[in-house]
Design brief:
The chain is α+β, with helices and mostly antiparallel strands and about 625 residues long. Helix content is about 35%, strand content about 20%.
């Protein structure tokens, strides 16, 4: 009935979708197995992609040939570039999506790839022989053979939904939990744990009084995620901002004694940076209000997502409290918020390629690794799909360094540090933020993945090469051409900048704070005519390169210094317990993680600089 697949992907969420297309675009024959084909790429929580650091990840996924950015551009209803008041290293794109169209677009793109097959059924186990995965086993007892398997089970592994004192099995609202895989993996020697996440109520937008809320429009100048020729959003749907108050908090507190969070029924660790409303009230007792983002689920639906009101309190308490929020007095609830517990596997059990250490050709991606968020899941799926293809073809794994991508930071953190709570990406986690901007992801990453032979990147690579040439032209022009005091001083004064006493090169003036490239083009007709040849994105990246040249150079020097440690290899099967000069914690952690380089070893929690020195002596350096 089935061929022997190159890659079987278990799970049709964001990680699974990216894993399937990545492996297929590398040339692998792929089976995407999911319990419900109608919920492929379902946005289980908020209807949005991107955000602080997450937006950088989506752009990186796109630069690496993934589809999340393309799907988002086709289905967004609002776009905002966050942190524009800060430096460009902090700029992060975010889009509200049409939930139904998002899932539909993903499915249609998957179905358009003839190397991807589908199977709708619960996968209850793996076929493993002599330490190598050979396929999967379905609930009705079928065995489907494969050369590699990628598990992207999301919140479905023994999922348990909590609403007040009620609890029932489920992977998300209205869908069954997945069973069997955790028990088998435990028998094979894997360690597992429990994590928890939650979601807020959904309400009927027709029942809300929008006049009592603050409107939050999209950006007047709309950008996008994909570097391909995707459409630019022309019309936008606004979001709104509302606030809780003391009366809301007092009503919520009446349900605390029935809260599964506070009475111990939930054992899993929840996301620290996205707490439930009851957790916020408990932790920040001095605050009499909390901000809520009232987000539409799409262009035409009346369903509204109440971002910031995640809760697992009894449904009657949620409803009573919500109706005390200004604008929600007559709110009708479609479904209450809930918490969900699920199994995960500490990611220190993985290699840097996301392949498991215990079972050859078995890969984990997404929330099974302890992460949270669509974007974090998508990038892991992409990397697992690529590396599953490479592994079965006896090729070296594709690994991104911390200095090359936020994706590299995320995976490096997971593998070397592990996580005991849902891992979320922030810009602060990346030590080379000025290099890892959202505007240059294609220049950083497309050349790397093109070398792997992904079959749809030739046009992308030509665009990258053209952008690099045009950026160099702009930079050369600004370093060559000058500006006279008479041309600049009125503008400089309006910006609070010192006037010129003699003519200066354009790039010297551009280095000043608050001075914009386009403004200089408006002052000098020849400069304006020159800049008119280039698109907005090219001019932006050229301007950033000029303004931050010194910072970029300094950060690159740090990368070069650290890369010396990355080049010092540690062979497998080193007996660290025999190295008595290492601290006992270092011996334990190094034995568990088995780092491949000195650089990786230096980032493991519990490995001190003196331990690194011992390792350098051991390898003769």
């Amino acid at each position: 009935m089935f061929p022997v697949y190159d890659v079987i992907v278990v799970g049709g969420g964001h990680a699974g979708c990216e894993a399937a297309v990545a492996a297929a675009n590398m040339g692998s024959r792929v089976l995407l197995a999911t319990m419900n084909m109608n919920t492929i790429a379902q946005m289980s929580c908020n209807p949005a992609m991107g955000g602080v650091a997450k937006g950088q990840i989506v752009r990186e996924v796109d630069a690496l040939g993934g589809y999340s950015g393309i799907v988002t551009d086709h289905t967004m209803i609002q776009f905002r570039m966050l942190n524009k008041s800060k430096g460009p290293a902090m700029w992060s794109p975010r889009a509200q999506s049409d939930r139904m169209r998002f899932a539909e677009k993903w499915r249609l793109m998957l179905e358009a790839n003839t190397l991807i097959d589908f199977w709708q059924e619960m996968i209850t186990g793996l076929v493993v022989k002599n330490g190598v995965v050979k396929g999967v086993r379905t609930r009705i007892g079928m065995e489907i053979q494969a050369k590699s398997v990628v598990l992207t089970n999301g919140t479905f592994l023994n999922g348990l939904i909590h609403i007040g004192e009620k609890k029932f099995g489920g992977g998300r609202s209205g869908e069954k939990a997945a069973t069997g895989i955790t028990a088998q993996l435990n028998e094979l020697g894997f360690q597992s744990g429990r994590m928890k996440t939650g979601t807020p109520p959904r309400v009927d937008g027709r029942s809300l009084d929008w006049s009592k809320m603050e409107e939050q429009p999209g950006d007047p100048v709309v950008s996008k995620f994909s570097y391909t020729n995707t459409p630019i959003l022309k019309n936008q749907r606004p979001c709104h901002i509302a606030f809780t108050n003391k009366e809301v908090h007092d009503i919520l507190k009446t349900g605390f004694d029935r809260s599964p969070m506070f009475n111990g029924r939930i054992q899993g660790a929840g996301p620290r940076y996205c707490p439930s409303i009851e957790d916020k009230i408990n932790r920040f007792a001095d605050r009499d209000r909390h901000q809520l983002f009232v987000e539409p689920e799409g262009w035409n639906t009346v369903e509204i997502y109440v971002n910031g009101f995640s809760s697992s309190l009894p449904e009657d308490v949620q409803f009573k409290a919500m109706q005390k929020i200004p604008g929600f007095e007559n709110a009708k609830m479609f479904r209450p918020g809930y918490a969900i517990e699920y199994d995960y596997f500490p990611p220190t059990q993985l290699k840097i390629s996301l392949e498991t250490k215990l079972i050859k050709n078995l890969f984990f991606a997404g929330q099974i690794n302890g992460t949270t968020g669509y974007e974090e899941a998508a990038c892991q799926g992409l990397m697992a799909g690529i590396n599953a293809h490479l592994a079965i073809n006896d090729e070296a794994p594709f690994v991104l360094k911390r200095s090359e991508a936020y994706i590299g930071v995320l995976i490096d953190d997971l593998i070397n540090k592990g996580t005991e709570e849902p891992y979320r990406m922030f810009t602060s986690r990346a030590e080379y933020r000025i290099l890892l901007r959202q505007d240059n992801a294609d220049i950083r990453l497309t050349p790397l993945v093109q070398k792997l032979g992904m079959n749809h990147l030739d046009e992308r690579m030509a665009r990258v090469e053209e952008k690099e040439r045009e950026c160099k032209r702009i930079t050369k022009f600004f370093k060559k051409e000058s500006i006279e005091p008479a041309q600049a001083n009125e503008y400089l004064s309006s910006k609070g900048s010192q006037p010129l006493k003699q003519k200066h090169k354009l790039h010297q003036v551009l280095l000043r704070p608050h001075i914009a490239m386009e403004d200089l083009g408006g002052l000098i007709p020849d400069v304006g005519a020159f800049l008119s040849q280039f698109d907005v994105e090219t001019k932006e990246i050229a301007e950033i390169s000029i303004k931050y040249e010194g910072y970029i150079k300094k950060e690159q020097e740090m990368v070069d210094k650290m890369s010396r440690l990355e080049s010092v290899k540690l062979h497998e099967k080193i007996n660290y317990h025999d190295m008595q000069s290492l601290s006992s914690e270092a011996r334990e952690k190094l034995t568990e993680i088995q780092p491949s380089t000195i650089g990786q070893a230096s980032r493991i929690s519990g490995v001190s600089p003196s331990d690194v020195s011992v390792l350098l002596v051991y390898v003769g350096r």
